[in-house]
Structure formats: structure tokens, C-alpha cells
Design the sequence.
């Protein structure tokens, strides 16, 4: 085995074009980590401004009616691990406004320098090994067994099975080592740069690297299998691009289209908003009718009635609207769960899903954000109504305590992570065995 | 000793019909065949990469089973394209790897020295070697196996005369050491020059056998037209 390791190390790292490609992957990965780190730092700086602005805003309100109308903004802060997956996330930089209005708004601002923040596809650390690493691994899988003539020559010296198994193991060892060292190196460099990751974030990143390596092995074995299927002919390069394109672009895109089609069963968000608006307006109408019928009622009595209506609103209409929103969110969750199950079926689709969740801005991050908004709105409404109708209107007290207006989303491991990992290993094992079986039939003719 | 007993096979355009022959120790037997692809096919059968329909192949009495070569046999393939052996390493590194698999480094260098091989070639990538240098290296690796029996598939075809002379020298050394050599080829003049015995294979049948010394007295043109045309 040691001789194979040494020989394959020389084959892989002694070849100029391989070194150029590996250098290119390292350089671009480092560049995107650096740019991710810069964006993270900029976000932190803007977060401070955001907090300061929100604090100042409260001081400007003269009444709780104003506070309820304008509300306060809620900022979505992704986990620091997001810097490795900036472009793999499902959500962009988003924020929401918590106010007394009926609709929940989640928005992304393109104001100022945020206009220039949008990157294209794959332009983050996770995208580089996915696009270029997969391409490289397919190619190296193609080169692994050299030619049938070479295999016959080697088989005269050792069993084909031994040569095949040890060559594959040795090549994968070095290539995996390269990608693991690259990933870990950049991870620790980021830490040296002053960013601290929690224990769970560290564990998620290490598991991400494990999956990445298995995904790349999948491509290597696919390249090896394709070469054998086309009998080592030059036409491999034609199939090479077709297979790569299908795996990298077509299947993930089909998966995305499929989830979009499935999401069509969901009611339109506007319809939900309209329903909530109707509930609110029904109560408003009731109050307006009451005013018309009791035009001569004194002001203090009116105020009492207003309070009564507000309590009624909290106990009926608001609860109804919240339940509408929660039900809608659970429907969205079902679509997401279906999407997750479907993504598990193929390594590249699962990679997309996994990196989205690891970024902290994935589908489940979105659900948590929405749940957080609903909870916060609930509390804010109670705070607002209590202070508006019962409290002292002279000073407007801030609802936000301990930076509650910052939603800290965590990187997460999908529930199906181990299943996705097993499916990838299964594909790899099938390719490995199938390639050997076909190779034997090509080397030893019946 | 190399022994082929009643080999039969019919596969596409190629067929063998009851091929039997024996190559004694210290003998070079040249089996002439018109078509290269037939020689390639027969070579694959003799080296165990192609199953024969029926019959038996043995080297020093050890029967060939698949490509599990008996320690006593060496197979030298006609290598036309270095690209088929481009492992993307330097020649020296390739030799290191093969030596780690049990090949005698001393034996390799012995052959290389006969071919006036220069050490600097070891630092070149296999694909950058001159065709003759690559062939010499390949030959050195093949002959480094201790096997007394050698099966050659038209190895010198297309090679320069100087290389052919070096190759002949090595082949004769092997013969002098008591090796049995079965040469598959299509060059009747080369056969008469190097071999002890010559056989003519036509349409899968061994049509005619003669001692090489007798061949020189026969009308080679006539033999060529009769069996190899």
C-alpha cells in the first residue's frame, strides 16, 4: 500500500496541469473565504448601526400609536459559518418589520452598497470545490487506470483486483487529504483572523468537509466508471461534460423546479394577508359602527370602549390571524420537508440543501425566523395595546430588550444528513463495484 | 518449455484450429502470421487475457489459468503508443513503483545497460521519452521478471535497426540462459535471422514448420506468397 501511496502521490502532484488546477482551486477558495469574511465583518459593522438607529428611533416616537404604526425592524443575522456558504444560502440579507399591521413582511434591501453585494452562482467557498473540484475529480477518475494496454501490463505483475483497489484507495487518499487540508486550513485561518466559532458550528463544518470529500469521491468514481463504459476512448470528454452538467446543474435545478411546483399547492401569501386584513377590517367596521350609533358618547367612555375593542381584538381577531399565519407556515414546512426528502436522493441535490442549512440561511432558518417574528409580534401587540390604552403616554418605552430585534440564526445539520451521507456512499460503492466488473470484462475477454 | 496443445477458437474473423507446438529450452520459435490483429489475438490467448475455446497452454509444465501468469513466463507486447503507458510520472518513479512490487532493480538495469541507456532518461516523463527509449524501458521491465519462457508479440515492428540489434542481443542472452522464446510476427526475413524454428500460421492452422537454417535455402518469396500473402 505504501508503494501505491507514494506512486499515486507522484502521479497526482508531480503533474504540472494537476498542480495548476489544485492551485487554482486553493486560490479561489481562499479568495472567497476572504471575501465572505469581509462581508461578515461589514454585516457586523452595519448591525451596530442598525441597533443604534433602532434605539434612536424609539426616542423620536411621541406616542404608542406611532410606535405601533411604525413598529421596529428585525434583522436576520446568520451564523458566522455563513461566510463559507455566502452564496449557497436560500435567503439573502433579510429583515422584517414588527408593527401593528396585519401582514408580516420579510424584505431584502438593495439600498446603498447592498446593491453590489449580489454574487452569481457558486461564488463562495462551498461553490468552488463543488464546481471545479467535481470537474477535476471526474477528470482524475478518467486518468486513474491509464489504458487497457497498461492494465494488461500491470495485471501480469499483480492481480487486477489488487491493482484497481489499491490505486483507487491511494488516489482518493491524496485527493481527499488535499480537500480536507484546504478546508481545515481556511477554517483555522478564519479563526486566526479573529472569528470564533461555537462547538456546534465547528462540528457542522467538519461534517460538511466529510460530506464534501464523499461527494468528490462520488465524482472520481463516476469518472472512472464513465471511462470504462466508453472503453477508454477519447469520446469520454464528450460524456464527461454531459455527465458533469447533469450532476452539477441539471439535477439540482430540476430539484428546485420540482419544489417550486410542489409549493404551488400552497395558498398565495397575498391570499393569507387578505384573509387577515378582512378579519382586522371586520373588527374595525364593528368599532366604526359603534361610533356612528353612539356619536354623543363622552371621550372617556369612548376610550374605555376602544380599550374593550382592543382586548377583544387580541383575544379573537389577532389570535385568528396568528393562527392563519402559523398554519400557513406549517404548510410551507411540509413543502420544505418534502424537498429535503427529495434532495437526499442524489448527492449534488443534497449538497445544495445541506450547504443552505449549514449557512444558517436555509429553509429551516427561514421557518425559525418566521416563528420568531410571530412570537415577537404577539408580545409586541400585547405590549403596544397595554401601553396605548392603559399606560402612560408621556414617554414611549422601548419594547426591544437585549437586542431582541436581532434574530440569530444557527447553522444546522439537516435531519437527513446521515441518510444523505449514506446515499452518497452507496452511489460511490455501486460505481466502484460496477466499474471493476466492467473492467474485468474488458481486460479478460471471454 | 512452452507447450500449446490443440488450441481451438472461433471468434469473429479470428480462428485457431488445433494449434499445437512446443518450444524447447534454449530455442527461439518464430510463428509467422500475416495479420497484426491475429498476432494480437493469439498473444492475448497466450498471456491469458483471452479465453481459448479449447486446448491447453503451459509454461514449464505449469498450465496457464486466466491471467494468473506462472512465474516462469514473460510476455512482451507490441507497444505502439507511449500514451497507453502515460501514468504522468517520470520513468524513474515508475520503475521505483514496479520495483516496490517485487521487480528486481538489478535485472532492469542490466537490460538498460545493454541498450546504452542514459541515466538522465529516468528524469523524463514517460510520455516525453523517445519511442526507442520507451521500448527499451518496457523491455527492461518485462525481462526483469525471472521467467525462463518468453512470448513476444512483434516487438521490433517499426523500430530502428539499432534498436533491433540491441533487442536481438537481449533475446539471444535469454536463449543462452536456457529460455524458451515464442515470437509472434509477420517478418519472414527477421524470422530467418533470429529464430531456430519457424512456423507458418494461415487461417488459424499451422501450415508449415521448418528450421530457420533450412529456410535460408528455400525460396523465401515463394513461402511468403504461399503462406503470408
Sequence:
Amino acid at each position: 500500500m505504501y508503494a501505491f501511496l507514494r506512486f499515486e502521490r507522484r502521479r497526482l502532484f508531480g503533474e504540472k496541469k494537476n498542480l495548476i488546477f489544485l492551485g487554482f482551486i486553493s486560490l479561489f477558495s481562499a479568495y472567497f473565504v476572504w471575501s465572505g469574511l469581509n462581508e461578515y465583518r461589514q454585516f457586523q459593522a452595519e448591525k451596530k448601526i442598525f441597533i443604534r438607529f433602532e434605539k434612536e428611533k424609539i426616542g423620536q416616537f411621541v406616542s404608542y400609536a406611532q410606535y405601533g404604526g411604525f413598529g421596529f425592524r428585525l434583522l436576520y443575522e446568520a451564523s458566522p459559518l455563513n461566510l463559507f456558504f455566502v452564496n449557497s444560502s436560500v435567503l439573502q440579507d433579510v429583515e422584517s418589520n414588527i408593527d401593528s399591521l396585519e401582514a408580516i413582511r420579510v424584505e431584502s434591501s438593495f439600498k446603498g452598497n447592498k446593491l453590489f453585494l449580489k454574487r452569481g452562482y457558486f461564488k463562495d467557498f462551498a461553490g468552488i470545490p463543488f464546481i471545479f473540484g467535481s470537474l477535476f475529480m471526474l477528470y482524475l477518475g478518467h486518468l486513474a487506470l491509464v489504458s487497457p494496454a497498461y492494465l494488461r501490463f500491470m495485471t501480469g505483475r499483480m492481480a487486477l483486483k489488487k491493482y484497481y483497489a489499491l490505486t483507487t484507495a491511494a488516489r482518493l487518499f491524496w485527493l481527499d487529504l488535499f480537500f480536507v487540508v484546504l478546508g481545515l486550513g481556511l477554517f483555522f485561518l478564519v479563526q486566526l483572523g479573529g472569528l470564533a466559532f461555537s462547538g456546534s458550528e465547528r462540528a457542522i463544518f467538519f461534517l460538511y468537509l466529510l460530506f464534501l470529500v464523499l461527494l468528490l469521491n462520488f465524482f472520481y468514481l463516476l469518472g472512472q466508471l464513465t471511462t470504462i463504459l466508453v472503453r477508454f476512448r477519447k469520446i469520454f470528454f464528450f460524456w464527461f461534460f454531459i455527465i458533469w452538467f447533469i450532476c452539477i446543474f441539471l439535477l439540482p435545478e430540476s430539484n428546485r423546479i420540482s419544489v417550486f411546483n410542489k409549493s404551488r399547492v400552497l395558498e398565495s401569501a397575498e391570499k393569507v394577508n387578505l384573509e387577515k386584513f378582512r378579519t382586522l377590517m371586520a373588527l374595525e367596521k364593528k368599532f366604526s359602527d359603534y361610533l356612528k350609533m353612539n356619536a354623543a358618547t363622552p371621550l372617556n367612555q369612548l376610550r374605555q370602549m376602544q380599550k374593550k375593542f382592543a382586548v377583544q381584538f387580541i383575544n379573537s381577531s389577532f389570535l385568528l390571524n396568528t393562527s392563519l399565519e402559523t398554519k400557513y407556515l406549517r404548510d410551507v414546512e411540509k413543502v420544505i420537508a418534502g424537498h429535503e426528502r427529495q434532495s437526499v436522493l442524489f448527492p449534488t441535490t443534497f449538497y445544495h440543501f445541506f450547504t443552505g442549512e449549514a449557512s444558517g440561511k436555509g429553509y429551516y432558518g427561514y421557518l425559525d425566523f418566521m416563528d420568531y417574528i410571530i412570537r415577537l409580534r404577539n408580545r409586541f401587540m400585547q405590549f403596544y395595546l397595554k401601553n396605548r390604552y392603559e399606560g402612560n403616554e408621556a414617554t414611549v418605552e422601548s419594547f426591544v430588550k437585549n437586542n431582541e430585534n436581532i434574530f440569530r440564526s444557527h447553522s444546522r445539520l439537516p435531519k437527513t444528513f446521515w441518510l444523505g451521507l449514506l446515499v452518497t456512499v452507496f452511489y460511490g460503492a455501486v460505481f466502484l463495484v460496477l466499474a471493476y466488473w466492467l473492467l474485468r470484462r474488458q481486460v479478460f475477454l471471454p | 518449455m512452452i507447450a500449446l496443445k490443440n488450441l481451438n477458437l472461433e471468434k469473429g474473423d479470428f480462428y485457431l484450429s488445433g494449434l499445437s507446438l512446443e518450444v524447447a529450452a534454449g530455442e527461439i520459435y518464430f510463428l509467422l502470421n500475416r495479420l497484426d490483429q491475429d498476432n494480437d489475438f493469439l498473444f492475448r490467448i497466450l498471456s491469458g487475457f483471452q479465453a481459448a475455446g479449447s486446448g491447453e497452454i503451459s509454461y514449464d509444465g505449469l498450465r496457464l489459468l486466466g491471467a494468473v501468469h506462472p512465474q516462469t513466463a514473460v510476455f512482451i507486447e507490441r507497444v505502439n503508443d507511449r500514451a497507453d503507458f502515460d501514468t504522468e510520472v517520470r520513468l524513474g518513479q515508475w520503475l521505483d513503483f514496479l520495483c516496490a512490487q517485487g521487480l528486481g532493480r538489478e535485472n532492469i538495469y542490466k537490460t538498460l545497460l545493454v541498450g546504452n541507456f542514459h541515466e538522465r532518461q529516468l528524469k523524463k516523463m514517460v510520455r516525453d521519452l523517445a519511442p526507442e527509449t520507451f521500448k527499451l524501458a518496457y523491455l527492461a521491465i518485462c525481462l526483469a521478471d525471472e521467467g525462463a519462457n518468453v512470448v513476444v508479440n512483434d516487438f521490433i515492428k517499426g523500430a530502428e535497426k539499432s534498436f533491433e540489434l540491441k533487442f536481438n542481443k537481449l533475446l539471444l542472452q535469454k536463449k543462452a540462459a536456457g529460455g524458451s522464446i515464442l515470437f509472434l510476427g509477420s517478418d519472414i526475413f527477421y524470422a530467418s535471422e533470429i529464430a531456430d524454428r519457424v512456423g507458418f500460421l494461415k487461417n488459424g492452422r499451422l501450415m508449415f514448420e521448418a528450421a530457420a537454417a533450412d529456410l535460408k535455402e528455400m525460396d523465401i518469396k515463394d513461402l511468403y506468397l504461399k503462406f503470408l500473402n
Q: What stands out?
A: Chain B is about 35% helix and 30% strand. The domain at 1-72+149-156+179-229 of chain B is CATH 3.40.50.300 (Rossmann fold). Chain B touches chain A at residues 44, 47-51, 66-69, 75, 77, 79, 81, 83-90, 93-94, 96-98, 100-103, 145 (CB under 8 Å).
